[in-house]
Amino acid sequence: MNAKQLEEARRKTNPVWNSRKLKLGTFGSNMDRGCAISTIDGLLRIDWPSTRTLAQIADEMQFEALVPIARWRGFGGETNFNGPGFETYTWASGIAASTNYSGVFATSHVPTIHPMMAAKMGMTVDHISGGRFALNVVTGWHKSEFDMFGAPLMEHDARYEMAIEWLDLIKRLWVEEEEFDYDGKYYQTKKSYLEPKPIQRPFPAIMNAGGSDKGQHFAAKYCDLVYVVFGSHDFDDCKRKVDAYRDLARKEYGRDIQVWSYAYVVQGETEKQAKDYFDFYVNQKGDWDAASNLVNTMIANAKTLPSEVLAEMKKHFIAGWGGYPLIGSPEQIVDGLQTLSKIGLDGVLLNWPRYETDMRWFQKNVYPLVQQAGLR
Ligand SMILES: Cc1cc2nc3c(=O)[nH]c(=O)nc-3n(C[C@H](O)[C@H](O)[C@H](O)COP(=O)(O)O)c2cc1C
Q1: Which residue's C-alpha comes closest to atom 8 of ligand 1?
Q2: Residue environment code for 169-189, b if the CB has 16+ CB neighbours within 10 A, otherwise e
Q3: Would strands 205-208 and 225-227 be described as parallel, antiparallel, or unpaired?
Q4: In this structure, what CATH number is given to the domain that contains residue 114?
Q5: Which of 356, 353, 360 is nearest to 287 (CA)?
Q6: How many alpha carbons fall within 13 Å on the CB side of residue 168?
Q7: Which of 138, 164, 226, 348 has most ligand 1 atoms within 8 Å of its beta carbon, as the pocket-test mutant?
C-alpha cells in the first residue's frame, strides 16, 4: 500500500474520519459526576456498568468520539469533583470491547507514561477496537497531580517541547519497520521496536486540546483533531476563533485539521423546564467551592479577573466543565447544534448533568431531530 492507500484504510475503520456534517462525542464519562460540579442526585457515580452503559448509548447513536478525562485527583469541596475516576487506557480497552462503532480515545498526560508504554497500549486498544483508537495528548496543569508522580510540573512551553518528542517517538514506533535508537533531550532509547503495528495506518488519530499559543502550534503541526474553548458565545467571535485555528494549520504547516469543541446539554420539554433544571443543579445545588478550586488551578490569572467574569466562568464549569451551553427544548438544542456547525466546527463533545437519564432522553427526543436537520 502507498501512503495514500494507508491513510484511506485509517478512514475506513475510525469514524472520526467519516463525512458527517457534525460529528458528536461524549466527554468525561469515565469520571465521577461526569462534567457537572453539583450535589444533585442522579449524576454519574462512577462504576464500570454505568460508564459502559453511557458508551453503549453513544455507540447506538453512532457518536464518533468517546473522550475520557485524565485525572488523578479531584477538586475538593463537598463533592471532591472528579476525584474518583477510571484510568483512560484501561478504560478505553474495556470500552473498545463493549462497543462497535464509536472512536475510543485514551487521554494521556505526557510525563506520566513512557512513550514506549503509550505506543504499546494504544496499539493494543486499536486492535481490540478494530481500528477505532485515538490518542488525546495532554501536557497537564494540575501540580498536585504531578506531585503524586514525584514529577515536576515543568514550565508551560517546555511541557509542549517534551510532548513533541513523546509523540514523535510514539509515531515512529507505530510506523517504522526497523529497530531504531532515539536520542532526544527528554527520551533516549536503544533498539526501539513495536509489533504488531496498529490497525490504523500510518497511525491512529491524534487529538490535542491546547489553548495557548504554544499548544495551538503543537496541535496544528502534529495532531489531527484540535479543540477550541469559547470564552464568549457570540457567533462571530466563535467563528473567528475556529477559522483562525484552521488557517494556522493550513498556512504555517500545510495541514488540514478537524476543529472540535465541547458543550453541555440541559434539555426539557419546554425552554422553561430546561432553564429551571439549570437553575436547580447549578445555581441552587452547584458545588461552588470545588468549582473555585478547579478554576483557580486551571486558569493561571483567575484571581485577577473581574468578579462577575469569574462568577460566569464558574457557572459554566459547574454546568459542564466550562463547555458551550446548549439549554432548552429539543428544537432549541438542535438550533444550538446547527449554530455550532455554522461556526465551522467538525464535531462537538457533549455531556449531560444526569448523564444516563438525560442521554437516553436525548436519544429519544432530540437525536431524531438532529438527523432530520441534516446534521447527521
Ligand atoms: C476537550 C478538552 C479535553 C481536555 N482533557 C484534559 C484532560 O483530560 N486532562 C487534563 O489535564 N487536561 C485536559 N484538557 C486541557 C488541555 O489539554 C490544555 O492543557 C488546556 O486547554 C490549556 O491549554 P495549554 O496547555 O495550551 O495551556 C482538556 C481540554 C479540552 C478543551
Answers
A1: 69
A2: bbbbbbeeeeeeebeeebbeb
A3: parallel
A4: 3.20.20.30
A5: 353
A6: 18
A7: 138
> Which atom of ligand 1 lies at the shortest distance from residue 262's CA?
1
Query: Into how many domains does the chain fold?
Result: 1
Q: Which amino acid is at 313?
A: M
Query: Residue 214: is it exposed, middle or buried by C-beta count within 10 angstroms (0-12/13-18/19+)?
Result: middle
Alpha carbon nearest to ligand 1 atom 28, residue: 209
Task: Yes or no: say if 294 and 145 are a contact pair by the CB < 8 Å rule.
Answer: no
* CA dist., res. 108 & res. 117, Å (int): 11
- Which domain covers residue 161, as residue numbers? 3-372
- Residue 199 CA neighbour count, 13 Å, CB half: 15
From first to last of its 376 residues, the chain has per-residue pLDDT tens of: 666 777 787 888 999 999 999 999 999 999 999 999 999 999 999 999 999 999 999 999 999 999 999 999 999 999 999 999 999 999 999 999 999 999 999 999 999 999 999 999 999 999 999 999 999 999 999 999 999 999 999 999 999 999 999 999 999 999 999 999 999 999 999 999 999 999 999 999 999 999 999 999 999 999 999 999 998 999 999 999 999 999 999 999 999 999 999 999 999 999 999 999 999 999 999 999 999 999 999 987 788 889 999 999 999 999 999 999 999 999 999 999 999 999 999 999 999 999 999 999 999 999 999 999 999 9
For residues 110 and 76, what is the distance between their CA atoms, to the nearest angstrom?
Answer: 24
205 CA from centroid of ligand 1 (Å): 17
HEC sequence for 254-304? CCCCEEEEEEEEEECCCHHHHHHHHHHHHHHCECHHHHHHHHHHHCCCHHH
Instruction: Please give the grid coordinates belonging to residue 23.
Output: 460529528
* Closest-lying ligand 1 atom to the alpha carbon of residue 159: 25
Residue closest via CA to ligand 1's atom 13 equals 138
Q: Name every protein residue with a CB atom under 6 angstroms from any ligand 1 atom.
A: 69-70, 107, 138-141, 209-212, 215, 227, 229, 262, 349
